[in-house]
Every structure is written in structure tokens, then in C-alpha cells.
Amino acid sequence: MTTITYETIIQYLMPKQNTFSLQPNIIMKSEDFSLFKDIFDDVFYRIGITSTHMGKNISLQNSVMYCIDSNYNNKDIETIVNTIPDDINKIVKELCINIFIFNFTNNTIECVYNGDYMNPWKPSIYLARYDEWWEPIVVKDLRVFSFSSPRANILKHNILNMDVYQYGTKDNIVINDNFNEIIKLDGFVNNIVVDADIDIDENEPFIKHDIPAIPTRGKMDKMKKDDLIVLCNSLNKVINIAKPTKKDLIDIILN
């Protein structure tokens, strides 16, 4: 026989509230997150997107499109739902990306990736989830992340230092961050370039890959030292200095 406690009565009378706005363009800063606020720094935020269309929950498809397409604001809903699959495993396979899921219902982090291991050099997007509703987690000028992108420290030092489970399981993800080994296995360096006018099909990947572009010296001057080290690694640059300064790292990258 189930024991009815005071807490059970309170939970029944006051069910948990959905903290997602479910309205377009409503922003919640990371410092106001109910969960995961210690993972993201204060430039990250969740943003509301159109969540339903003709009575169907399209928040997953719309969140993915928001992250990967710089021309998102010019997309109509029909184009989005006809372009992005409604199955998250199919999305990952067809777009060749990783999706990190920050579940605000049960305080867990999951990752969806294609293959035997998660490649952190591959483009990744961050999605918040509450029950079956989804929102993107982004920064103002960046919606796709990897070890070779700006703000790589959040992925490398925060997210991947947490328990991250394979999607739909309680098994921890398998990570391969050995850059040279990945090159041998996959045959390319991953860097997202989205063609907003191309449709997804099995013969034409929506996301293409190429060698990471080298930022200008001015942009690198504004980068953190850890991010410069990541960029050096992604470009296969050798750092022969025991304690390199930012100037040393920039010179190595540019030479």
C-alpha cells in the first residue's frame, strides 16, 4: 500500500511548472536557469521559439534550425518542418552533428551522436528540454560549438566534466578527443558551414565540413588562452614552449 505523505499531497496540489516560455524570442539568461547555471557562463541564454504548428509540437525541429541556420529569421515554419526531421537520432545522422540535451525535468545531461563515440571536434548544439518541449541554448553570436570553436572551454571543462549519458540510456557517453586519431578514422576536420538553401537528403549533407578557418590576429587577441590552445590543437600546430603566452600562441597559429 502506498503511503500518502504531506509531500505527496503538495506535489499533487502544486504540480511542477514548465519554466519554458513556449513563445518566440523570450530570453532566459543562464544565471536565471533553474538548473545547469553553474555549467554556462553569463553570456549563454535560452531563447523561446515557435513551439507548435497545426497542433503539432515542432519545438525540437525549430530549435535545431535556429541553431544551425544563420538565415533562420527568414525561414517560414513550413520550410522548417519539411527540412528538419522530427526524430532526434535522424537529425544527428543526417546533419552530422552532436546534440547535447540539458533536461530541466530530471536534471540530467544527455548527448545524441552518430557512431561508436562522441567526437567533440564535430559541431555540437545545446538544447534545453522540459518534458517534450525544447529550446536552444546559445550565445549572441554563436549557436554551434566544438573543441575548435570560440567558447570551447564550456564544452571541454564544464559539460564534459559532468555525467553525460547516451541519449535514452544510463550509459555514459564514449568520447574520443584524440584529434589525430579522429582524422585517421573520419578523414576530415569538422567545421560547420551551413548552406541555408539546400534541403536535407541522404545524398547531400546539410552541413559540410572543411579545415577550420584561422581568425584574424585582432580576433585572436580577444580570445582566451585556453581557446587559443584548442585552436592550435585543431590546426595540428605544435606548441614547443613550456608556458606560452597568448602572443606566443597567436604567432604559432599564424606561422
Observed structural traits:
Cathepsin B, Chain A; globular; 9 helices; two-stranded antiparallel sheet; 7-stranded mixed beta sheet
Overview of this protein structure:
The chain is α+β, with helices and mostly antiparallel strands and 255 residues long. The chain folds into 2 domains: 19-210, Cathepsin B, Chain A (Alpha-Beta Complex); 214-255, no CATH class. Helix content is 28%, strand content 16%. It has helices at 6-13, 59-68, 77-83, 88-95, 152-158, 179-186, 217-221, 225-234, 246-254, and strands spanning 27-29, 45-47, 52-53, 56-57, 98-103, 108-112, 124-130, 133-138, 164-166, 193-194, 207-208. The strands form 3 sheets. The chain has a 7-stranded mixed sheet with strand order 1-2-8-7-5-6-9.
Number of helices: 9
- Classified by CATH, the class of the largest domain is Alpha Beta
Query: What name does CATH use for the topology of the largest domain?
Result: Cathepsin B, Chain A
**Mean pLDDT, nearest integer?**
81
Question: Can you write the helix and strand succession as a string?
Answer: HEEEEHHHEEEEHEHEEHHH
CATH architecture classification of the largest domain = Alpha-Beta Complex
Percent range for β-strand residues: 15-25%
Strands across the major sheet, in which order? Answer: 1-2-8-7-5-6-9
As for the number of domains, it is: 2
**What profile does the largest beta sheet have?**
7 strands, mixed
Q: Residue ranges: pLDDT <50 for 5 or more in a row?
A: 9-17, 188-211
Category by helix and strand content = alpha+beta
DSSP, total strands: 11
Query: Based on CA inertia axes, which overall geometry fits?
Result: globular
Helix content: 25-40%
Task: Please report the distance between the alpha carbons of the first and last residues.
Answer: 73 Å
Tell me the radius of gyration.
Answer: 20 Å
